C-alpha cells in the first residue's frame, strides 16, 4: 500500500478526483487546514464495514507503514496481541523483514 497522501483544504477543489482515486485504491488520505491535520479520509470499503472506523484506520495506516504495531493497536483500541490477530484475519503480515534484516535481528538476539 502507498504511503499516506496529504491534501490541503484548498487542494480539495483542484484535486478532489485524486482523493477519490486514492479512496478507490484503498488508500487513507489526510486533509490539512492551515498546516494542521483536520480530516482523515478512510476508504468506505469492506474492511471498514467489517472492522469499524478505528480498526480499519489502524489496519490501513499499519499496512502503509505509517504506524508502528504498538501505535496501530492503540488506534484500533486493542492490545498488541489482539491487533496482531486482526492483522492475521485481514491477511496483513505483522512483521515484514527482508532476509537480511531477519538475519540481523536473529544475530542481535544471540
From TrEMBL:
<dbReference type="Pfam" id="PF03683">
    <property type="entry name" value="UPF0175"/>
</dbReference>
<dbReference type="InterPro" id="IPR005368">
    <property type="entry name" value="UPF0175"/>
</dbReference>
<dbReference type="InterPro" id="IPR036165">
    <property type="entry name" value="YefM-like_sf"/>
</dbReference>
<comment type="similarity">
    <text>Belongs to the phD/YefM antitoxin family.</text>
</comment>
<protein>
    <submittedName>
        <fullName>Prevent-host-death family protein</fullName>
    </submittedName>
</protein>
